[in-house]
């Protein structure tokens, strides 16, 4: 199966169209975060998401940590998918499911050590996909993605082998290592942000090079 590509940190309708035009199966729209790139307003997320038509998915990246706050955030933007970049309080996934059953749930696991495997296996029972990234939610200012750094792909591979739902791989993936990442981890999807940008803007030449590397 051909790996899906998600282009994250989309900041305009034009960027969304550019990413989709080159072959992105999903786009990521970043809500309020404690740190990291690509943060835009909920109004802009809503405007962009409206232009993204099936079968392309629009992901809301939310740093909210309670079911109520996540539901409220999604109600403002109406994306097809919610990507939770931090741990959900009391794992209240069912509460989100009941409120917005048509929306897919993706939980980010920040791959730090072997404990990440246990966490991913447990959470995989509640969500539609797991996204493996290089952040660190334990720092005084949480780093919840967009680091541009790779993590230990051996751990990511173990996670992918031990869960039954799709796995996205993120963190420091670019045109030079994307094939290696896919061959090593065998993810359902690859998630990119900084490697296809120049001074924060989506770079068409980098996008083209990235998708050529996948051919």
- The separation of the N and C termini measures 13 Å
Structural class: alpha/beta
Strand and helix order:
EHEHEHEHEHEHEHEEEH
Average predicted confidence as pLDDT: 91
The share of residues in extended strands comes to 15-25%
Shape: globular
Question: In total, how many domains does the architecture comprise?
Answer: 1
- How many strands? 10
Notes on the protein architecture:
The structure is a single chain. This protein has 215 residues and is an alpha/beta fold. It has a single domain (4-213), classed as Alpha-Beta Barrel (TIM Barrel). Helix content is 35%, strand content 20%. The protein is built from eight helices and ten strands. The chain has an eight-stranded parallel beta barrel with strand order 1-2-3-4-5-6-7-8, surrounded by six helices. The protein has a two-stranded antiparallel ribbon with strand order 9-10. Helix 7 links the parallel strand 7 (167-170) and strand 8 (189-192). Helix 3 packs parallel to helix 4 and helix 5 (115-123) packs parallel to helix 6. The radius of gyration is 16 Å and the shape is globular. The protein starts with a strand and ends with a helix.
